[in-house]
Amino acid sequence: MMRILRRKVFVVFIVIVGLISICSFWFSCASSNDLTKQDDAFYRDVSHLTNRYAQPESLLIGQQLKQLQEKSSEVKDADADPDDIPYEEIETSVNDEYTVVGRREGDEVYLPFFGFIQKYFEVYGRLTDNKQRFIFEHSYSKIYKPNGMYTPTGIFMSFEHYNVEVRDRVKCISGIEGVPLSTQWGAHGYYYPIQIAQYGLSHFSKFLIEDKPSVTVYENGEDCTDMEWQVSGPASHVRCVPDDEIDSDVLAFKTPESLGNPGALFHLDEDSNFFMSLDLKFITNGSITVLVETKAKSAPLFHIHYACSQTLIHATGNEIYYGIGDRQTWSHMTRDIPTDFQKGLTLLYPKQKKLKMKFAVRRIVSITLHGTGYVDNITFSSVTHLAQFYYAANWLVRHQDRTGGWPIMVTRKLGTFDSLDPGWYSAMAQGQAISLLTRAYIRTKKEMYLQSALRATKVLNINSQDGGVRATFMDKYVWYEEYPTNPSSFVLNGFIYSLIGLYDLKTIAPPELSGEAEKLFKQGMTSLKHMLPLFDTGLGSIYDLRHVTLGVAPNRARWDYHSTHINQLLLLSTIDNAPILKNTAERWTGYMIGKRAAHN
Ligand SMILES: *[C@@H]1O[C@H](CO)[C@@H](O)[C@H](O)[C@H]1NC(C)=O
Ligand SMILES: *[C@@H]1O[C@H](CO)[C@@H](O)[C@H](O)[C@H]1NC(C)=O
Fold this sequence. Notes:
Layout: E1 13-15, H1 30-33, H2 37-44, H3 46-53, H4 62-78, E2 88-94, E3 98-105, E4 108-111, H5 113-121, E5 124-128, E6 133-137, E7 170-173, E8 180-182, H6 193-209, E9 215-219, E10 230-231, E11 237-243, E12 248-254, E13 264-270, E14 275-282, E15 287-294, E16 302-307, E17 313-316, E18 319-323, E19 331-336, H7 337-348, H8 355-358, E20 361-370, E21 372-381, H9 385-399, H10 427-444, H11 447-455, E22 470-473, E23 477-480, H12 492-508, H13 515-531, H14 546-549, H15 559-573, H16 579-591
Parallel strand pairs: 16-18
Antiparallel strand pairs: 1-4, 2-3, 3-4, 5-6, 7-8, 9-21, 10-13, 11-12, 12-21, 13-20, 14-19, 14-21, 15-16, 15-20, 17-18, 22-23
Membrane topology: Single-pass membrane protein; Single-pass type II membrane protein
Catalytic activity: [heparosan-N-sulfate](n) = [heparan-N-sulfate](n)
Enzyme class: isomerase
């Protein structure tokens, strides 16, 4: 295949004596440190990375650029001898397989970065400072050094940087369950316990590090003297009434059920707190509608309807609908309006990703009630991390099965392993769920969270062949499988998450209940310390052991998984001082800036 690049100005990258020396370059990663959290989530998606780095324009680097420009303009002005041009094009044969056009300047050779180096070496570069500076990076991912010793009550690994709900593979947050619905391996959407646990753990971690949220209570039924609700028609009303069940005053409302009628309207004009929470009880079917103004100029207003129905999400025109179930008894509801809006937009305009930015929420204009029922504590806050955390914890308690597991109801095909049929368990789900439940238990002291976490260890004791997740390496080392494949796959990151969960549980459970978690944790740590070297290539890490169990090519971890491995090992090194954990984490960190294990 011949691919010759001929451009007037094209990017060159210094190639010192052949191509081998790439590894000796490393640059500051500072620029990637200022990514916002949202960016961070975006950059997890490899397609975004490709966009970020694959810049079509191309230029020369710094000083050389200036020199070359000066020289070439001299050349032009003087219309001088072409021999004065300081470089010549040079055809470069790559492994005798194809050719690339480079440039020769004296005895130095330059090859195009974007047209060749980047792909060939899987490295990353971009022009900054008005194209006056070139940033070269060996990897695109990032390490979060732990801040002191890990504790089961503190932030979970580096999850304060996670933003689960904005991911494309989250279809929306269910109005009934209050947790995300995944489309990662099934377009129809399914509840994925790992995603739900990560959603809860990220909100818990953010809750711990962020300032107190700003909160405005608009209505709590206490004072109806200066009624701000607009109601039309003699049959409709909103009034304050005492509620015996909860022993306080609440708002009773009665309006037509149909959205075609005006309903009861409350003007908010809320321009900073976009998380809505309220207590609700319907007598008939009904809905709460939020009217949203966006940042896009001259864009229409959008309605988000939270309606008594089982439909997950539906959108048409400027209307977005979330089913919230029938709500015939008092229940609390918390909604992240910007996320609900974005997910609705994605349904309305599936192909237009850029729209999401332009159409960010600027203001919540009003809320409107339809139907007959009661409402209390209508509140808008800047964030609602704890509510989101408890939605996840309660989902886990409600949906745990009799084996103590959270079966995953979607087919999963890992590489060339046989597919896992719907209903499989994952040690990663069990582990992250345990980490979430232990935190919920610590905060609330509610027994149900502790009991659920304890039950969750059962699945780790059942062999993969028997429907569990336990594998044994070389008849010796016990492993908890993220994917309980046959033969075993030994996925590293999922295994370590299960160990972190076990550590959390054995640490917080009362001594008479912690034995099982303690035993499973110890077994797992022994396996990890013995098997960790199998995941080291000398210049990166490996995702699983398919090269051992299937005899196929090794499955190298891409950089975000590699950095997850390191973040996990750094966490474990704060609770276990075995040198292999710390040393491996350090060596693997070096791989991210181009260092490699020595060769013979
Ligand atoms: C709500 O609507 C559904 C579907 O139309 C109906 O089956 C149900 O009985 C209604 N519930 C109430 C309380 O009116
Ligand atoms: C509204 O909030 C108050 C204060 O937290 C609480 O006592 C009351 O029960 C809440 N109302 C409902 C309907 O849950």
